[in-house]
Amino acid sequence: MRLRNKPWAREKIDAHPQYIIPESSNVKGHWHDIFGNNNPIHIEVGTGKGQFVTGMAKQNPDINYIGIELYESVIVSALDLLMEAEVPNLKLLNVDGSDLLNYFEKGEVKQVYLNFSDPWPKTRHTKRRLTYKSFLNLYEELMPEGGEVHFKTDNQGLFEYSLKSFSEYGMMLKYVSLDLHNSEFEGNVMTEYEEKFSAKGQRIYRSEAKFQP
Ligand code: SAM
Predict the structure, then answer these.
(1) Percent with pLDDT over 90 in the chain
(2) Going along 94-140, which residue ranges are E strands?
(3) Using one digit for the tens of pLDDT, what is the confidence trace for 149-207?
(4) CA atoms of 141 and 161, how far apart (whole Å)
(5) ipTM score of the complex?
(6) What are phi and psi of 163, to 5 degrees?
(7) Domain formed by 9-210, architecture
């Protein structure tokens, strides 16, 4: 993703701790207190400008969502969406997905979403892919037994790699679509990348993989 430098982003993030939960606050094991209920918690790693999590939070008020995004200059756009939408069941976290264990207790997260993750096509960058085995291990650590990873992409190479990675990790593939927008899947919430790529006629791939005991 091309990043536009926004020198004011840090200040804006710091001014809205009720929406973008400060990295320094003691969140691990306290997310249900932060949301003020015991509803299940779903996270999106690499949430970008937040269109998906905001749409999901509106569609499912009984699920709590956390959008996790590495870059300040990107998460501020998600902040704008969240403030406009006024959804109490959505929070944002401006951290690196590889540090998730610093922010979540085992079993605190019910489901993980990955949408249009950076493909990192070069073999030497395989470990950076959010569906690489070390990331799968992280997600498994956050969720109770039988947790799921729901994944969408327009990138055929990343999709093929990810299906293989899920399967080699021993996950069960519950759902695979090679053309989501021409499938019978209901309730799809489009991400900003999904809108952009599908408008250009690109196919969208989707999978649901479940961790096995
Ligand atoms: N999910 C959005 C969508 O579908 O429109 C954004 C997709 S964009 C290609 C990938 C996003 O993942 C970028 O905003 C990037 O900064 C973020 N990202 C990549 N690696 C990450 C990591 N390790 N932790 C958190 N966010 C990450």
Answers:
(1) 94
(2) 111-115
(3) 999 999 999 999 999 999 999 999 999 999 999 999 999 999 999 999 999 999 999 99
(4) 22
(5) 0.99
(6) -60, -40
(7) 3-Layer(aba) Sandwich (3.40)
Q: Which of 5, 49, 68, 71 should be mutated for ligand 1, with most atoms under 8 A from CB?
A: 71
> What six digits make up the tokens of 177?
């679509």
Q: Which atom of ligand 1 has the smallest separation from the CA of 196?
A: 5
Task: Give tens-digit pLDDT for 25-47.
Answer: 889 999 999 999 999 999 999 99
Residues with a known catalytic role: 118
Mark 172-196 as b/e (b = at least 16 C-beta within 10 Å): eeeeebeebeeeeeeebbbbbbbee
Side by side, which strands form the sheet with 172-177? 90-93, 64-68, 41-45, 111-115, 148-153, 205-210, 172-177
Residue nearest to atom 18 of ligand 1 (CA): 46
**pLDDT band for position 24 (cuts 50, 70, 90):** confident
The stretches of the chain forming alpha helices (DSSP H) are: 9-14, 31-35, 51-59, 72-85, 133-142, 156-169, 192-199
How many of the other CB atoms lie within 10 Å of CB of 114?
23
- Which residue from 45, 31, 29, 35 is spatially nearest to 138, judged by alpha carbons? 45
